[in-house]
Design brief:
This protein has about 160 residues and is α+β, with helices and mostly antiparallel strands. The chain has three helices and five strands.
Length: about 160
């Protein structure tokens, strides 16, 4: 009888390796999901801060500032709202974003001049209300919706 010289893994060895990998995957899945959620929240926070900076830069345009500025008490003139459908600029309850070609509002034009893709920014984290930035009649720009806190446990 010839001796067979098999150079490979037995079925039992392969099953044991697959089983060990499955146990490791199950143990790590919750932690990986935390990392993904934190990444999404961090992206939203960065986008949120970028939108504030874009609005502040847009207000350096004379026409955009004139559209916002009013004497008297500081009241909300415009709102920028971001959700998972994108970002829109509102004057009161009127959407003045439209598209870059048809935006007739001076602040909307200035926003497109600063960043042509600002209206396409979407929120990554599913929430019940939009992230909102208000632009006041004194020219100040403020966050009015706080971002969900990042998960402090990053271990």
């Amino acid at each position: 009888m010839k001796k067979m010289n098999n150079k490979g893994f037995s079925l039992v060895e392969l099953i044991v390796v697959v089983l060990i990998m499955a146990i490791i995957a199950v143990a790590l899945a919750p932690q990986v999901m935390k990392w993904v959620d934190n990444s999404r929240r961090s992206t939203d926070e960065d986008n949120y801060n970028e939108m504030i900076a874009n609005a502040q830069v847009a207000l350096t345009d004379k026409l955009a500032y004139a559209a916002v500025y009013a004497t008297g008490t500081a009241s909300v003139k415009y709102s920028i709202k971001t959700d998972n459908n994108g970002t829109k600029l509102y004057k009161g309850s009127t959407d003045v974003t439209a598209t870059q070609a048809t935006a007739t509002d001076d602040l909307a034009k200035a926003m497109y001049a600063v960043s042509a893709n600002w209206a396409s920014i979407k929120a990554k984290v599913a929430i019940t209300t939009a992230y909102q930035i208000d632009i006041y009649s004194d020219g100040s720009v403020r966050k009015t919706t706080n971002q969900p806190a990042l998960n402090a446990d990053l271990s």
